[in-house]
Amino acid sequence: LALVALACMPLLIGCSLAERMMMNGYTKSKEGDTSDTIVTEALSSVRTVTSFNMKADRVEAFEATLRVEAPRSVKKGIIAGSIYGATQFIYYRAYALCFWYGSKLIDRGEAQFTNVMIASISILFGAQNAGEAGAFATKLADAERSAKRVFSVIDRVPDVDIEQSGDKDLGKGCDVDFQKVQFIYSARPKQVVLESVNLRFGDGTVNGLMGQTGCGKSTIIQMLARFYDRRSGLICVNGKDLSSLDIAEWRRNISVVLQEPNLFSGTVRENIRYAREDATDEEVEEAARLAHIHWEI
């Protein structure tokens, strides 16, 4: 019986390998990814889509990608169904052969039922699982590369240490000076964003940054928040080097109003208090008044 079951092993391993490789190779096409992107962008920017009356356009774009993807998906479905049906047919034919031959041995008193089941199930299931394991062998290299990328991110040392402690005495007021500041993004080392920039934002003044897209307006704000550090030059706050100040204390003194704010789960009061959890109710209400949302709340 064991020899009969072993004779079926190559066929079972091949079927399992083919079925698993077919399933592993069933990946989304470019059109499938595009349709996902269209839906995600439309839902995340639903206000913009509605404002420009682009609902019908986005629906048509989504349906267009599906029309391209549909024939390919149907073809893959037919191939997948055929391979699955063929492999299942071979599986059960092998089981039937082993059980039929085992019943003959039991009838002649040459084997016991327990031994027949152990030999048949162990070898047949072992062959099936061996084929599936072999199909995943090609994924080991991909898994190793993915793990290396993940650990490279985990082990990366950021240019700005958010846990950095420093001078907590920020002084009174807030005079900010940019002195010959240069900045280059690490991802684009050949493109200089800021070159020898000199700016001064006086305490109590209202200042605006104007310029074409990519000239560094947002970069200056991000440098003030210590998301990035300058390559050269000096940024001073009340005469002190910004990089010498305690990051947490400095950020607690910065208020940011984004173009499209995102609310976290929780109450409005909790959202206002995120930057300063020790803020009093009076301070929270005053912040709401300054933002012109007090009466709406």
UniProtKB/TrEMBL annotation:
It comes from the Eukaryota. The keyword Membrane applies. It is a multi-pass membrane protein. One of its GO terms (molecular function) is ABC-type transporter activity. Keywords: Membrane, Signal, Transmembrane, Transmembrane helix. The keyword Manganese does not apply. Pfam families: ABC_membrane, ABC_tran. GO terms for cellular component: membrane. Residues 1-18 form the signal peptide. This is p-glycoprotein. It comes from Leishmania tropica. The gene is MDR1.
